Amino acid sequence: MKVDREIMQTLSVGLGERSYPIHIGNGLLDRAELLQAHVPRKRVAIVTNTTVAPLYLARLQHTLQAVGVSSVTVILLDGEEYKNADTLNMIYDALLKNRCERSTPLIALGGGVIGDMTGFAAATYLRGVPFIQIPTTLLAQVDSSVGGKTGINHPLGKNMIGAFYQPQLVLADTATLNTLPDNELAAGMAEVIKYGLIRDLPFLEWLEQNMDKLLARDTAALQYAIARSCRNKADVVAADERESGERALLNLGHTFGHAIESGMGYGVWLHGEGVAAGTIMAADLSQRLGWIDAQDVARIRKLFERAGLPVVAPDLGADKYLELMGLDKKVEGGKMRFVLLRQVGRAVVYGDVPPALLQQTLQACVHG
Predict the structure, then answer these.
(1) pLDDT: is 84 or 2 the higher one?
(2) Is 104 one of the annotated binding-site residues?
(3) Least confident of 79-93, 279-293, 321-335
(4) What confidence tier does 2 reach under pLDDT thresholds 50, 70, 90?
(5) Model pLDDT for residues 242-272, shown as the tens digit of each residue
(6) Which segments of 66-181 does DSSP mark as H helices, in order?
(7) Are 330 and 258 in contact (CB under 8 A)?
(8) 80 in a labelled binding site
(9) Active site includes 243?
(10) Given 247, 301, 329, 337, the catalytic residue
């Protein structure tokens, strides 16, 4: 396979001694030299799932074998519903049975679920082993593979058990998006749109002009969107690694969205679908606070609709939404805090939402 080495872009997540590169380009799974420096002992453990393994596992193994690197493989069931402690133990079981050492890197080959679980396993196995992200979905390439958030779900709440643990490398091969189902591509677009809404208005305008190209999987457009998203994420993470301030803005739509995912049952709604409907709810609430107007909300809704994403939330009942949102990680001092839009392109974290306005949003944005 011919690889154009000219089109790879490399960004850096600036975290001092723990800084790491994000490589973005077409055909990077064939680039052994990008991985070689991070595999000192010629052995890795690859964690993937039943969907991705038939597509890309053999290719990654072949690339590693070409430079003398052997691999232990862990193939998990695919789906958000398996992002739990039982599945995590399957990773530990494989690492222990194969006597993986502290110098054995774990490679996450897959989407956000695989990346989150592999990262958490890496953070906790032998109290910390090296970790490499090879994201194969748009959502993982633009969001979950960058920044070191790892974890698993609990029946009472999404991503409530985890650790901040940075990878040594992120390798985003845009060619893997060619096998991504349309609904998964759309789900990733929710996180791409998010960056424009919270901090990058010129990017939002670019997305409005280029959404059709992105959905048609235009290589250049996708690479631009991925790189721009990763640059935004890297800048935020470098400024606030452990989410004590600015990083919380990356959760636009997530308080509502996580409630949708938990309330519907993990895996029924894709994460990006929950974020899309949740972002419309956040925009509605921002309008009720008088920060943005109806035209802004319509603009946001139109872009999500063009991306093929849901803009109406499921009707879990207002009490259920409030119960689930009360378990959100941004709750502080018992008070719910929301990421809302002061204006399109500028988000804030706000904890003084009048209960009556929140109730109005919950009633206005859901259907049965």
Answers:
(1) 84
(2) no
(3) 321-335
(4) very low
(5) 988 899 999 999 999 999 999 999 999 999 9
(6) 85-97, 112-124, 138-139
(7) no
(8) yes
(9) yes
(10) 247
pLDDT over 70 percentage in the chain: 98
Annotated binding-site residue? 323? no
The CA distances from residue 79 to 83, 142, 300, 329, in Å, are 7, 19, 28, 22
All domains in the chain, ordered by first residue: 9-179 (3.40.50.1970), 188-367 (1.20.1090.10)
> According to the model, what pLDDT value does residue 361 have?
96
302 is in an annotated binding site: no
* Residue environment code for 326-348, b if the CB has 16+ CB neighbours within 10 A, otherwise e: eebbbeeeeebbbbbbeebbebe
What is the pLDDT, as a whole number, of residue 215?
97
Catalytic option among 184, 243, 261, 273: 243
> Is 33 an annotated catalytic residue?
no
Q: Give the pLDDT of residue 343.
A: 97
pLDDT in tens, 99-130: 999 999 999 999 999 999 999 999 999 999 99
Name the pairing type of β-strands 106-110 and 43-49.
Answer: parallel
Cβ atoms 121, 93 nearer than 8 A = no
38 catalytic residue (yes or no): no
- Active site includes 194? no
247 is catalytic: yes
Judge whether 23 counts as a catalytic residue.
no
Q: Verify whether residue 367 is a known catalytic residue.
A: no
H or E element that contains 144: none
Write the burial class of residue 214 (CB in 10 Å: 0-12 exposed, 13-18 middle, 19+ buried).
buried
Q: Which of 258, 288, 301, 337 is catalytic?
A: 258
The predicted model gives 47-75 an average pLDDT of 97
- Give the pLDDT band of residue 48 (cuts 50, 70, 90): very high
38 among annotated binding-site residues: no
Determine whether 127 is an active site residue: yes
Element (H or E) spanning 334, and its range?
Answer: none
In the predicted model, is pLDDT for residue 146 greater than 50?
Answer: yes
Given 228, 233, 329, 337, which residue is catalytic?
A: 233
Whether 182 has a binding-site annotation, put simply, is no
Q: Which of 271, 288, 301, 337 is catalytic?
A: 271
At position 232, the amino acid (one-letter code) is N
Residue 158 assigned to a binding site: yes
